[in-house]
Write a sequence for this structure.
């Protein structure tokens, strides 16, 4: 008998005992049956307690044997998870293998036969192991170099196939006055659609000699993870800012304000840009600029004599303007004539970055066996699309010609 069965039987006994003892006339036989039923129910309750203890133990043992793994996009960035994933990644990085103890923390895909030759040539022999899912290791790179990649809208899909995107524009509609017995006029929203595609992206190949892997006291695994993290988030930020000529377009914007001077930004310019954005987007809006452009604004004062660059909610200095955060993209244009060095708008409403599955690092040991080296390369699939609900969620400051 399982836990559910014995619990149901105990509950039925209690219900029957209650009905027996609450009758209008209770006989001696009823009292005897009641006592027997209560005793049986007590014995079942004790069995239920024992079975729950065993069930809890088995559940705890299963958890300790296969700890939850934080995969791509997972929000588990705890110290324990990061430490476990680093240990598993270090083992795979140096040996190409993962022990049963560490396998739960680093998912591996299939091993394929590959051959000698350069990456661009057909490959017919060798061995490649593809580990994925160590987001916490790259998280610091996201914070430092991928602010824009994290500030836009996010969409994760299991595959990279074409995806139909639907949108509607109802911003021009509201209420209209009608007379008595007058029919309402049809005012349907303007519906549009587009198809999202993905690109295959790579960090490029990094080769390390096997002697260095074996002998170096330097933390090579952290070094390679950090390098790939920087390349991954730096690359995504550049593509979002400038586009990649394929399936990741540049973040779109429309004219918000034109500067008075072609080489300097004034307080009036910033106010004009802020005022150009529709109020529906201001409450979730961000400023986008380079650190150099932000430095230009450090000397700007408001009409009350206060610096326009303020602290954010965490107390970090020079991180917001008019209460809205600054997102750094080092690939934004510089302050120069006709350039658009500052954007202001609701980035999550305006742009969606689509990530198809997770990123994967491939370890190529047999491919470079003749030179006694091991190669590492990161691959990922991503796409993106702009969203315009009718009022353009992002405005730009265009420098005067």
């Amino acid at each position: 008998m399982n836990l559910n069965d014995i619990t149901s039987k105990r509950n039925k006994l209690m219900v029957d005992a209650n009905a027996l003892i609450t009758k209008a006339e209770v006989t001696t036989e009823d009292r005897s049956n009641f006592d027997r039923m209560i005793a049986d129910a007590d014995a079942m309750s004790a069995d239920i307690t024992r079975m729950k203890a065993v069930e809890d133990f088995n559940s705890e043992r299963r958890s300790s044997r296969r700890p939850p793994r934080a995969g791509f996009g997972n929000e588990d960035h705890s110290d324990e998870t990061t430490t476990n994933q680093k240990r598993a990644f270090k083992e795979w990085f140096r040996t190409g293998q993962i022990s049963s103890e560490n396998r739960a923390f680093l998912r591996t895909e299939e091993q394929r036969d590959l051959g000698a030759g350069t990456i661009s040539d057909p490959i017919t022999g060798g061995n490649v192991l593809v580990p994925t899912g160590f987001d916490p290791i790259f998280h610091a790179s996201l914070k430092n170099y991928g602010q824009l990649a994290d500030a836009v809208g996010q969409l994760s899909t299991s595959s990279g196939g074409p995806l139909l995107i639907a949108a509607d524009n109802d911003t021009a509609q509201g209420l209209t006055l009608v007379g008595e017995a007058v029919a309402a006029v049809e005012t349907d929203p303007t519906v549009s659609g587009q198809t999202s595609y993905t690109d295959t992206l790579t960090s490029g190949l990094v080769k390390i000699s096997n002697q260095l892997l074996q002998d170096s006291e330097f933390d090579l695994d952290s070094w390679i993870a950090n390098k790939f993290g920087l390349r991954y988030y730096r690359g995504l930020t550049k593509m979002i800012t400038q586009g990649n000529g394929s399936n990741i377009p540049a973040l779109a914007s429309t004219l918000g304000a034109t500067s008075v001077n072609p080489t300097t930004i004034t307080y009036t310019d910033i106010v004009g840009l802020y005022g150009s954005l529709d109020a529906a987007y201001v409450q979730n809006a961000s400023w986008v600029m380079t650190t150099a452009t932000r430095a230009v604004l450090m000397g700007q004062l408001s009409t009350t004599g206060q610096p326009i660059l303020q602290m954010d909610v965490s107390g970090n200095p020079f991180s917001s303007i008019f209460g809205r955060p600054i997102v750094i993209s080092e690939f934004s244009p510089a302050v120069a004539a006709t350039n658009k060095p500052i954007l202001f708008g609701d980035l999550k409403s305006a742009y969606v970055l689509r990530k198809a599955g997770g990123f994967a690092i491939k370890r190529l040991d047999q491919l470079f066996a003749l030179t006694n080296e091991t190669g590492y390369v990161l691959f990922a699939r991503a796409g993106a699309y702009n969203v315009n609900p009718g009022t353009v969620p992002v405005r730009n400051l265009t420098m005067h010609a």
About this structure: The longest helix spans residues 28-65. Residues 81-169+191-401 form a domain with the phage-related protein like fold fold (CATH 3.90.1690). The chain has twelve helices and 17 strands. The CA atoms of residues 94 and 213 lie 6 Å apart.
